[in-house]
Structures are given as structure tokens and as C-alpha cells.
Amino acid sequence: MKFFDTHAHIGLIYDDPIEQLRVIQQAKQAGVVRIVSINNSLYDFNKNYPRLKSVSGIYHAVGVAPSEVTNPGPDWVNTIEKSLSLPNVVAVGETGLDYYKQFGDKRSQIELFITQLEIAQKYNKPVIIHNREAGKDVYDILTERMPDSGVILHCYSEDAAFAKKCLDKNIWFSFAGNLTYRNARNLHETVLNIPVDRILIETESPFMIPAEFREKKRTMPKYLPSTAKFLAEMLEMDLEALSEQLWKNSCKAFNISEE
Fold first, then answer.
1. 78, exposed or middle or buried, with CB in 10 Å at 0-12, 13-18, 19+?
2. Roughly how many angstroms between the first and final C-alpha of the chain, as a whole number?
């Protein structure tokens, strides 16, 4: 079996490049052979991409998260556009809206988000979306500005009703380790009410530790199979069959070869 971690902040697990390579090697030993490396800022992308650009199985997203709305960086639009031409850069993100921590103001967050959707449309890349207590605005914006290459709602946190109304759009639903929590009833209901061919899984490393590893200090990509196993049990699917479906979904979402 092989797994695809669609969202991991490798640079937040460890800053040291040797430790980052060790994390990736441990993931591969656990069957997690592809990872999308995520950075919240262009500063972090410019630090981590050179370290990981030649590592087999590592793909990259570039973008500005809502946490960086007050300081996206000089000439940030041009920087994202240039970075999208680099090898193995497969998505714009993460970007989106976060009304929980109230970074900047809503208008500035929305402008930052919309600009990156427009960049994704221009360069035919999917968008990885951070949505925290901003579901209505995210949905309304996507209704008008959905990029042709689609979007991934990462670390999905809405309910089944929200997911159902998104099914007519080119939207993927990515679930992290919190899916395995006993009280995550909204997530459990969601996965039981959407097609399996629209589901992705991620670790959101170093956050969202699966229940099996709650004693650990941080999530690692090597823990992804734990979330896959929980999902297989919920869906009453054979784990190997589910892993094959999730692999196909992930490759399709990021427009990369399954081979």
C-alpha cells in the first residue's frame, strides 16, 4: 500500500534540513511516499523549497495564508507567479479565510484570497484552502471565482450539509488526524455522505495528531496510515482498496501522474 499526504508543514516539524529529510524517510518507510509540502508564507517557501526541491516524492504549494495578511511580502503576486513555474510546484496555497483568529480584517483577507484564486486560474493550478469559521464567505467566493483546476478544502471542518452543497463544484475534501477523534461527529457524518472519490487525507503536520498517537508532541507524515485505517473502518472498506482510491484522488486533485 502507498499513501499520499496532501498537506504537511515539513518546515514546522523541524527547521533543520537533516531532520526534515529524516521525517521524509520515516514517512516513506510507513508507506507515505508522496507529500505536498506547505508553507504559510513566501519567506518560509523560499527557505524550505530549495532544501526539498530534489527530494523524490515531495511536491510543493506556494501561497500566502490568511495569517500573513498584514505582511504578504514585497511583490508577493509576482513571487507566487514565478514560483509556480518551478519543478514540482503543484498548487497555490495555502490561502483562504480565518475568522477565528481575526488576522487583519475580513476585507483584507478576502482580497488576499481572491487574488490567489485569480493567480491559480491564470496558471491552471488547484488551490489549497484554509477555512476557519468562514465557511459562508469561502463558499460564496468560490461560487463566483472557482478556478478551473479546482480547490482542496484542507483539514475539513464544516458539516455534511456544507459538503453536500459543494458537490456540484470542483472541490476536494481533505481530512486530517482530527477525523479520528471520538467527538468529531460533523466530520464522521461528512465522510459518510460524500462520494469516496472526492476524499483526500492529510496529516496537517505538525498539528492534528491522530487519536492513536495523542501522547506525541507533534504529528508526522508517517502517522497518515492511522487516519486512513480509521477512514476505512468508517466506510466499511478494505484498507488497501481505500488507499488505492485515495492515491488516485490525490494525483487527480494535483494533476500529477499516478505512476
1. exposed
2. 14
Average of per-residue pLDDT across 128-157:
97
173 strand-pairing partners: 153, 199
- Residue 177 neighbours by CB under 8 Å, 6+ apart: 203, 204, 208, 209, 210, 211, 213, 219, 223, 226, 227
Sign of the torsion formed by the C-alpha atoms of 256, 193, 173 and 13: negative
248-257 burial code (b ≥16 CB/10 A, e <16): ebbeebbeee
Would you call the peptide bond into 202 cis, given omega within 30 degrees of 0 as the criterion?
A: no
CA atoms within 13 A on the CB side of 3: 27
* Selection from 182, 193, 180 nearest residue 224 by Cα: 180
Q: Are 48 and 11 in contact (CB under 8 A)?
A: yes
Classify residue 107 by burial, with Cβ atoms within 10 Å: 0-12, 13-18, 19+.
exposed
| pLDDT above 90 for 101 | no
User: Strand 171-175 vs strand 3-8: parallel, antiparallel, or unpaired?
Assistant: unpaired
Segment 168-178 shows an average pLDDT of 97
Q: How many CB atoms lie within 10 A of CB 116?
A: 28
Contact predicate 130/95, CB 8 Å: yes
Residue 126's nearest CA partner among 142, 156, 149, 95 is 149
Give one DSSP letter per residue of 73-108, joined into a string. -TTHHHHHHHHTTSTTEEEEEEEEEETTTT-S-HHH
Span 225-247, mean pLDDT?
Answer: 98
Task: Report DSSP letters for 178-199, one per residue.
Answer: GGGSTT-HHHHHHHTSS-GGGE
